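Journal club side-thread
Mid-discussion, someone asked how the predicted structure for our own chain would compare to the paper's figures. Pasting it here so we can look after the session.
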Amino acid sequence: MKIKPLHDRAVVRRLEEERTTAGGIVIPDSAAEKPSRGEVVAVGSGKVLENGQVRPLDVRVGDKVLFGKYAGTEIKIDGTEYVVMREDDIMAVLDK
């Protein structure tokens, strides 16, 4: 199943965080927080401005991004978890 977000929304797949600290301590799944990094898998057409024009999104499919811990709405499609969020909820694009 494919998903196409509307307007200024993006679909992000969370990236796994490191499970080991710098000191070598392994963090169990029950104590680990949800990652706040992800990869953009789909983007909408853009934000509709007050004058009716559409401004394209700054993020593109394949971008690695940082977002807030409670940003967006979590969905599950074909067993994979995604987060649908507005472009405003994305804080940064990570360099490759």
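Post-session note: DSSP finds no helices and eight strands in the chain.
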